[in-house]
Amino acid sequence: MTALLQETLGVLARVPGVRAAVAATVSDGLAAAAVASVEVDADTLAAFAAALFQRTRRANVAAGYGDTHQLVLDATGGRLFVAARGDLALVVLAERDAGAGLIRVALQRAVRSA
Amino acid sequence: MAPDRDRASGRGVPADPGGLAFLPMVDSLRRLGRLEEARRVALDGLGRHPYLADAHDAFARVLADQGDERQARDEWEFALRLDPTHDASLKGLGFLAYRRRDLAAAEQLLARALLRSPQDDGLATALRRLRAELRGAGHPVTPDRASSGAAASPASGPGHASGEGARTLFAALLGDGDRTALLLDRDGLVLAGAYVDGGGNEVADEVGAHLAGLADEAARALEHLGLGRWESLLVEAQHATVALSPATDGAVVMVAAARDTQVGLVRRLVGQARQRADAWLGAVA
User: How close, in Å, is residue B89 to chain A by CA atoms?
Assistant: First the structure.
């Protein structure tokens, strides 16, 4: 399981512009595995990304939009991608100018294979 | 005798006189084109379950297949009197309305059915096509949040006269398709935009309250991760793609579009809606 996750995260981390890829549990925001090309606090990333995803998931269900598949948070200092299947979330932290389309597709593939 | 043959032959009913086995049997016979047998089995089941909406629905389907639309409508309407939320009957009546080209009625019925069965992708697709036809014919449509987060018609809902400027702030941006946009203040209260569900209810306050909290959560995450200010949040959900963006004075712009809308278009729309919202907030300040 961990080897597969590491391999999946490794694929994500090789996408141009990606700084870090982390696997975490949505329910408690704990990091399960991480691959980073720069120094990134994987635990902090996992905790806040999972909290945001969980909140988004609840809001979407309450608003009638159904389950949440993926989110992209654009900020002045970077891009945060989160996709989940069940309680496993894959989190990608990328440069501000990283190609969102490429990362989005890679993340969708990774979630299916994780 | 094998169960499948039992089912197709219509001879399985006596083995289950009080049960509901006749319902799938009617469907099987209809699919095989054996409408007279389907009719007999449906009538037999209806005789044993006269107050069961599913039984009237099964009989109505056979009647519709046989071209007896008047009686099919009676059966579906009766089923809805027994169970006003019976989605199959809503779909059936919607189908009949569409067939007689009463598109507005068909749209209302299918929107109600979709509220009851939000997972029904086929129904959602049919409703989208129907709405496209309606727009082409110049009719207003009733948006349905369960399928798409659809756009409110500028002329729909209360407040059309008094708050028209605010309600229709984003109408020109949204164009064709199932899209809506809201401007929310920092507490999640609606400042502009409109959102009417398939039942004709104004749901902007409810949707806004649920989604506005995401802005705080996003800002909190970014602060702890040292990523600066948030510019947009794009969410792909089961039935809709939703985008949020911060506007002036802590306000938030939200755009929701049908799931099959291109993600890039939704992001572009929220950027345009944000510009419009900022200009509007500046003008009303």
Answer: 22
- Residue B52, burial from CB neighbour count under 10 angstroms (0-12, 13-18, 19+): middle
Nearest CA in chain B to A62: B210
Give B257's contacts in chain A (Cβ within 8 Å): none
Chain A partners of B226 at a C-beta cutoff of 8 Å? 77
Q: How far is B41 from chain A (nearest CA, A)?
A: 38
In this predicted structure, what is the pLDDT of residue B10? 42
A64, B232: Cβ pair inside 8 Å?
Answer: no
Is B3-136 in CATH node 1.25.40.10? yes
Phi, psi of B103 (to 5 degrees): -65, -35
Fold for B164-284, please state it: Beta-Lactamase (3.30.450)
* pLDDT above 70 as % of chain A: 99
| Nearest residue in B to A58, CA atom | B210
The pLDDT tens digits for B216-267 are: 889 988 998 999 999 999 999 988 899 999 999 889 999 998 888 899 999 9
Question: What is the sign, positive or negative, of the torsion defined by CA atoms of B171, B177, B183, B184?
Answer: positive
Could you tell me the domains of chain A?
Answer: 2-113 (3.30.450.30)
